[in-house]
């Protein structure tokens, strides 16, 4: 590496373009975590420079103000000897967030300078914000050329001259075919607006760390961030005050002398991947997926030639959908779906990192800590290096399967399996699901049977109250067992049936039935889990003749009210004994006494005597409640609860058959 010292302004002084490789993550710095602290660092040194100048003017001998080190930027020269009239370009291997933010600061400073008396400062800053020349490639004018998701934004911000222009180009509410939709401004746009208004405030003598008069517990910085994120137009602070030209020049001088960076230019012998992994100064922590992406595409970079480009075609075909999607104008923008935090079990991470966690477990068929995803992937890769394009195609396909798994659509077997698994909070089965989906199409009967065997195993154990602590090992062993088989789906049921011991065995029918009838599941399981189980029964009871009533927004209802003992004897005990009361309190929360209703019906049915409550329940269109249309009794007793529980269990056995029955069915079909 060739190290060199530069300043924030010096970084942009020469005709040069900093290219963010297409496979790197987009701009991720946020206002409160990174941009506001960066601005505070800048202003701290500007104030020090002004104080130093004032001390010198008064005749005092003073020590020059200290510089502030912003971190390092690692660059790799992009050589293109066959192209003429092109700007010198460097790929930013590390430090793109810092480089991009400093460029946004230059753009904001340039635009504010146009409002000062005279045009000297604005003219000085012009070449710092745009490369000047008659280039063959128009995009060479931009000092920073981001990943595709940010290119439309950088064009808009470079060409804009006022903050109001930027706000107008990025409204918070847009009209679509679905009506008015609220959206967030891209992070790059938010950063520009913050820096633009922060500069204006400083030139008017305001400190963003001060508290506004109307909100003593907040700061002007908090107020500015809130305005950028929630208001169509960002109002200037104290717009009636004049702008100080002296302060503007002090900012430029500080950027040119006191804010230093280290630029490291790679030589041929340097490995960009190693440097990328080890250098990460001040900035947003890299996601495991960021490291995986850079690792793969730096492999592609090593393999490509002038005659055979790899990086851009492979990125566009297989990875771009992770990083960018089209906005309402049809322009690429940051894809938030994969970056949204999602909870699975005890894990709460961006969806893309959860996907890679399960994907790496799938590839290695071994236990993995979520903090070691990238290391695990690298180890797997180096053991038996895969071909680039097939591996990227496999990642892309597996990501689609993961997305269908955590956001199930419709009522197919896969979607219903996913809903039950999520409700019961069993995320450790995800690698097995991804493995099966690699082998089988969504409509394949063998896949349906395998998912039924998995669901039966999980649901039965949940209902009998068996532990889930060993599931990680159970499903990893299952994955290991299935991997070499030609027909892995047919082996799922037999494998689960062969497990023994309380920590992993599949409950037999007699145990399943006993706990179904007598376990107070309403108290022992979370309501969401009980709802999910009854929802599956509802769907299983339906025939093509039944109306397709939605089953998404349902609530649990006790047929025998939980307040039965206060309802004027409408629900009497068979015997007034402690034993009878204890039995009643148990049956009260079993499946036989629970049903599903919509919210409004649930409220209207609540605490009535049974003859009235039965009429209310019968108003429901759900098949689960048809039982009460033919029920002949005028009261609802413990025996009635058990009888309905047994009727529901008949359906439960069909939905979640014993593993041995599943084996028999598979054997017959295989034969």
Structure overview:
There is one protein chain. The protein is an alpha/beta fold and 671 residues long. The chain has three domains: 2-270, no CATH class; 303-500, no CATH class; 514-655, no CATH class. Helices cover 52% and strands 10% of the residues. The chain has 28 helices and 14 strands. The strands form five sheets. A six-stranded mixed sheet has the order 1-8-3-4-2-5. A two-stranded antiparallel sheet has the order 6-7. The longest helix is centred in the first third of the chain and has 27 residues, at 31-57. The protein starts with a strand and ends with a helix. The model is unreliable at 661-671 (pLDDT under 50).
Kindly name the structural category: alpha/beta
State the share of residues found in helices, binned by percent: 40-55%
What Rg do the Cα atoms give?
A: 32 Å
Overall, the morphology is elongated
| Strand residue content | 5-15%
Mean pLDDT: 87
How many structurally independent domains? 3
